[in-house]
Every structure is written in structure tokens, then in C-alpha cells.
Amino acid sequence: MNVLVTYPERCVGCRICEQWCSWKHEGRVNPTKARVRVSRVHSKYLNVPVTCMQCAKSPCIAACREGALSKDPATGAVIVDEEKCIGCRRCVRACPYGAVAIDKDKRVVLICDLCGGEPQCVAHCREGAIEYVPLAVADRGQRAAYVETVAAAMEGGSK
Amino acid sequence: MAALKGLAGQILRVDLTSGSITKEPTPEDVFAGYIGARGVGAYLLLKELKPHTDPLGPDNKLIFLTGPVEGTLAPGANKITVTFRSPLTGTYFFSLCGGHLAPEVKFAGYDGIIIEGRGDHPVYLWIDDDRVTLKDASHLWGKLTHATEDAIRAELKDEAIRVACIGPAGEKLSRFACIQSDYHREFGRGGAGAVMGSKNLKAIAVRGSGSIEVADPAALEALAEKTYSILAGNLKARARRHYGTPEMVDGTNGLGYWGTRNFSSGYFEEANKINAASMKENIFVGHISCYACPIACGKVSYIKEGPYAGTMIEGPEFESAGLLGANCGVADLAALVKAVEICDTYGLDTMSAGAVASLAMECYEKGIITSRDTGGLDLRFGNGAALVALMEKIVRREGIGDLLAEGSKRAAEKLGVPELAMQVKGQEFATYDPRGCKGMGLGYAISPKGAHHMIAPTMGAETAGDGSKRFEYKGKAALVRETQFLLAVVDSLSLCSSMRFALGLKEQIELYRAVSGLALDEAGAMLIGEKITNLERLFNQREGFDRKDDYLPPRMLKEKMPTGPSQGHLVELDPMLDEYYDLMGWDRQGRPTAEKLAALGLAHLWREVS
Fold first, then answer.
1. Could you identify which of B92, B146, B283, B480 might form a hypothetical disulfide with B301, taking C-beta atoms 3.0 to 4.6 angstroms apart as the criterion?
2. For domain A2-153, which architecture applies?
């Protein structure tokens, strides 16, 4: 099973991910209906992609009283049953990452469905700021970055 | 049902005098005829502005317009234009701004925003989808641009709101004040910020949640994918991705047409200290992108030590490095970054700011002004600290800064040395020295908004191969004409001009067809470019501009380039002008002929407005 891994330090804030997400799901570009959003922290010149992390114990599913949310056994994505969803936004509050939004027209929630296993945000991110990797190795990017930092420090110290 | 897709369908009209806010249906016929943004702006300004309108009076307008491809899947579609009569040049003017403002305006449901009148106290416009209000901005007046953006987002309690605002330079009506957005994207040239300041409008804040319908989604999707893959393999686009616009420093300086020390030369011997490699090595700490851009040329710079430690900006862009750097003889990166920061936070065009600074420096070195005039500043070329201090004076209109805030033409006239201002129609040169690139000289000269480099950016074609073509005159009038039409189309589509690395006219028109559903072809698009060019010319003609205003400063015509690879060259402008006017179907005074106007279908319009 694959999960999304984000690298905010690589994100440039072009929001092409938002474009393709809404395009594939809605047939139109509409950032407010994208399941991934890039937030810019202007004062720090940072861009942070925010999307569903496919938590193992999904707080959104636990928070839903209507039984509208479930996990796709094939992809691990949270699937929204639009018939059951009442748009109460309890899952929005439950998500620790702010990854759940609401569709203002349909009044149901928007959660990343991994595009059925071919996430379009990943396919179109030129910066490699979102990756879709097997859960078993989803930690390796972070580890590599950490190791690089340590190695650089050690190199500097040995001089 | 609208025949024309790609539009939001409404134009917002705000009269600050009465406070009235109205929504009008987007004039589809005008969009069909002129594509959008720049083209539609030229049409509307000619039509709506009375002749001889005071640029800083209530009758001037700020016509913000988006293009048809924005808010769709189109790559690099993020420019919004503002069209107005410039307080710097007195001409028709449009400025383009990237960032994230344009799609937000369309998502909010508008193809454009027309601002007219003058408020009796500072206000800002808050566009929240269909709810549009004017809010008091008295508490924001005097604030710097970044602080204004932050304050508005905090006040409206939404970090994702897009803001365009002016800083103190615009409030103080500096003639080259800009409108700033997303911290470091701006409607840069021509003084749009002063017009906004004269209207007592501090900012426009936008939040949109809608979407744009396109005519042929499948075709658009395929074109977007194709564009990404072409850009990924394009060397020029890759250079820009890695180094930002300063990638152009080495090429321009290497051929000796990079304006240096107030264009006394075109070759800066210390360019390697402020070129892309030096920036990457010393100050770049990150990348930042405009909306939907697969290049992401924005580079974040940070000064780690020295007197300017802690300064952080997006940039410096190539033009800022040229005009605040080489043209002031300044090779101190930290000072350059600080100067850009001052311009951006106070809301001043870095290019004109660099140009007036270089003018002041030349005057100082020649003894035309002394340290008594400069308040003790040692304004020698190359003095980075003095440049920074001078910027502070200009943005605050203190001492000599008050004179310089009027722009280099007015300042030089006041100082009795009009010939030292490197400008056309009052608009200061961009960073290219036309003696080393003749087509750029013609482009500066005939540009409807003065010496602007993006009206006919021919430098790429002129420097291709061994670079010697840049000295030729043959074919330059035709090249300028064709480039001018092409750019009129690009600017009207509102694509970033960097997309031209991958997208020729053919591909851009394919994009336009997929989005709009109109059956426009390349010849038709070039004809629209020609029509726009003529409309712009007509506006200026109505204001009294003609051939006498299509001249370069005497330095370009009489002083041979003293050093560098373009040494010994001048610009022989008159023959190029004659040839250009002939090709355009204008008379030798640069006025569109009756036959030309009839052929372009503009005769009726011209009779109506003149």
C-alpha cells in the first residue's frame, strides 16, 4: 500500500497540484474543491502542501457519526459516501492536518481519494514536493534528509 | 448561453467618489475582438477616458483585466494587467503582475475590475466572491506593502486571501510607484501605484471560490501536459528555473549591452559579482512560484551578515540587478538586495528607481549636484551604501528624494541636464543598452509606454548565433513589428512571457481555442496584435504624442559605446523609424493613416473617441 509523503521544503507554491486535483475530480479548476491545498506563509517565504496523510487510525472516520467515511481496502484512501455525508464538518475539525475541506455546492466533505491509486498531484508536481510511496519505506526520504544534515555537521566538525 | 468560454462573465465597476459598486456583464464582443487583458484594456481606456485626463485626478481609471486562459488548466496563466494613463509618461499604460492575484479574481467571478473616482478617505476594496464592499483603510495608510497584506489577511481572518496594495511611495504619489501583490509581485512600471494612491485606494483584497468553464477540456488537458514536457526539456526554461531571471546577466553583459553607470557604457566589469552564479552561491535560499507556473523562476534571497543582515526578498530580478546594480555601478549583492527590499516594501518600481539613482550618481560625479544636495551622501557610482540611503530618501520623498520621485525625465529637466535622463516619453530605459542591440532601441522608441523592454523584446532573436546580428539594421523594423504583435497577443492572453520558451504563437493560439471555443488562427491572432498596437498608438496620438516623442536620448545617438564588446556603436534611429512607420501603415509622423484604420476596422472607433 502506498501513501502520500509531502516535502514542504521542496514546494514552490505553484499550486499545479490543486489545479489537477480539482480538474480530475470536478472537471474544472477550482482550488476550493481541491483535496490538496498549498498554503503560503508569506512572512517566511514558505509554501506548505497540505493533503491527506492516510493516517492508520483515521481521526476523520472516528469523528464521523453518520458512517459516511470509510477506507478503501485497495488504496487505503478515505472514501466519502456523499449520500451519507451530512456536511457537519466534524471530520474537518478532527483532522490534525487540516486536510479535509467542504464542497460549498454539494455540502459534502472533500477528502483525498488518491485518485484511485494514481494521485494527480504527484503526477504533476515538478518539484517532487509530494511523493506516493510504499508505506514500508515512506520514512526514507525524511531519514535521508536527516542523515545528510548530520553528515554535513560531522564533515564540518572534522576539519 | 455565452458563446465565448473561458470568461467569468462579469466586470466589477467601483466608483470611489460615490462609493457605488456595480457589476456589468463582460463585453464578450470586446473580448472576442481583443482576446483579453492588455487588448481589452487598450480598447476600454481609449473609449472610457476623456482626452487629456489628469493621470493623478479622479477621472483617471485603473482598469484591471484578466485573460481568458486564467483559472483554467493553462500553464503559466497568472498575469493580470492594469491599464491607465500614466503619471510618469502621460501616455496610455499597462502594467502586468504575476503571482496569484489573477486566478483569484476570476474564481471570485470577475474578468476585470474598473476603479474610478476618488475616495474622500483611504479605503480598501474587499471582493469576497459576489459580496463586494469598500472598507475603511485609515489604519492602513502609511503601512508598508508587506505589513498591509498581513494586516488585511489578519483582519479578514483568512491567510489565503490575495491582496494588491500600495505602500507609502504610492500614497506620496511618486510617479513610478507600483502596486504590490504577494509580497514581491508587482504592477511595476508606469506609476500605477501613484494612481491608486491618488484615488485613496490602499488595497484590493480578493477571495474567490468559483471556477471557469472551458470549451474543449480534453484538448486543454493535452496541451497542458505537452507544455510541461516541452518546458522540462527546454534549456532556456531550465536556466530560468535554476537561476531565475538573473540567468540573463552573463549573456547581456557578455555581449556588451547591459546598461552600466547610467548607460555611459554597456559593459559592467564587475558583473560576475551580481550575476546568477554569484546570487546562487551567496544569497539564494529558496524558490517561489507564481500560480500555475511550471518554471518557478522566483528565487528567495537572504542576507546572512553585514549591515543588511536579515534582509529577505524574492529576487533580485534581472532588471533590478541591472538598473540598481550595473547601472549604478554597484556590485555589492547585499546592498542590491536591500535596495530591492526598500522598493518592494514601500511600493516603488525597482527599475525606474535604479534609473533615477544612476542619473543622480552621474550628476554627482559631474558636480551638477553636490553632497549639500544629497544630504551628505557620497553618491559616486558603485557606492552601495549610498544607493541604499538614497532609496530611503526617494521612497519618503526626503531632500533630493523628493525630486527623484518625480522620475528621471522631470528630475533631469529640473537639474538642467535633460540629456542625462535615459528615458523615452518619461519612462526610464530597461536594462538593455540599445547601442549594443539596435532592435531594442527601436522597440524603446516606438513603445506606447516609453522605453519598455517587453513591448518588442527582440533581444533573443538579435543575439542568436554569434550575436553579430544585434548590430545590423536590416530587418529590424520588421522584427520589432512582428514581436510587438506577438507580445500584444501574449499579454492579452495573460500568459507569462516566459511561457514563450515552450509555446510559440501556434501553441498559444491552440490554448486559446481550447479554452474559448473561438476558431482563431495565427494570422487572426497577429491581426489582433496589430489592432491592439494601433489602439495604443491612437490613445497617445489623442494626447499629442507623435514622432517627436519616438526618440532615444542623445547619448544613444551620438556617444559611441566606449567599452566592451559593443564598443564604437551608436543607434541610427531615423532610418529604422521611417521603415517601421512604413511597415505599420503609419505616416512619417507615426500616425496611423486613414487607410490603415479602415483596413483594421478601427476608423469608426477613432471617429467616435477623437
1. B283
2. 2-Layer Sandwich (3.30)
